[in-house]
Amino acid sequence: MDVKIESSWKEVLKDEFKKEYFARLVEYLHKEKASGQTIYPPGPQIFNAFALTPFDKVKVVIIGQDPYHNPHQAHGLSFSVPDGVALPPSLKNIYKEIENDLGISLYGKSGNLEGWAKQGVFLLNAILTVRANAAASHSKIGWTTFTDSVISAISERKSGVVFMLWGNFARSKKALIDTSKHTVLEAAHPSPLAGGAFFGCRHFSKCNSILQAEGESPIDWSL
Fold it and tell me: Is residue 66 among the annotated active site residues?
């Protein structure tokens, strides 16, 4: 796996890429591919979140768990799917909450969240790859060590970032964040399995209020 990653991230994470666990992770992925396994997202898109949101531009972090494992869905951004792909259930609920919170209707809009990423919303999955049709199949190969170091680097080197932690898995990452420098917004997961507990969190308006108080431009959530 050739790690294609934007230059500001490459500088921040250069020591991480030299560590033994990362070499083992890359070797594992090479073996999976060599054995004929299909891996999502496609290789060039594994670090898509890093490519679209340079380290210097990160204003908001939304943490997902692992990529979608069905064909054509995963493209390296948490919760996002490429243009023309049906909205997954969690993303439908995210769009509903945006409409309830901000009065912005995203009905009929694409599930491609690149527009958010380009504004500084870092859409990070804690696990960056998955075997086709096998959820969480790469959860133990070292990705969480890597992405924990990513979250820690944002916490240590930046200030005024808004972290949105949805569901217990994402909320477990709060321990990596210096809450004296950053804001952490917590809510239930947007999945329908959470029984609608995500609704009413108003994270999107809260986020923009926090950014404006920091002197930052708000996010245009309208895609």
Answer: yes
Query: What digits encode the pLDDT tens for the residues 138-148?
Result: 999 999 999 99
Asked if residue 106 lies in contact with residue 204, where contact means CB atoms within 8 angstroms, the answer is no
pTM for the model stands at 0.97
For the segment 152-179, what is each residue's pLDDT rounded down to a tens digit?
999 999 999 999 999 999 999 999 999 9
Sheet holding 60-64, edge to edge: 121-125, 60-64, 162-166, 183-187
CB burial of residue 63 (10 Å; 0-12, 13-18, 19+): buried
* Residues paired with residue 64 on neighbouring β-strands, in sequence order: 125
Catalytic residue among 2, 66, 148, 178: 66
Q: Using CB atoms within 10 A of its CB, is residue 12 exposed (0-12), middle (13-18) or buried (19+)?
A: buried
Helix 203-213 vs helix 89-102: angle between axes, to the nearest 10 degrees? 60
A 10 A CB-CB count for 203 gives 22
Q: Which residues of 105-131 are buried (b: 16+ CB within 10 A; e: fewer)?
A: ebeeebbbbbbbbebbbbbbbbbbbbe
What's the Cα-to-Cα distance from 177 to each of 23, 35, 39, rounded to whole Å?
Answer: 26, 38, 30
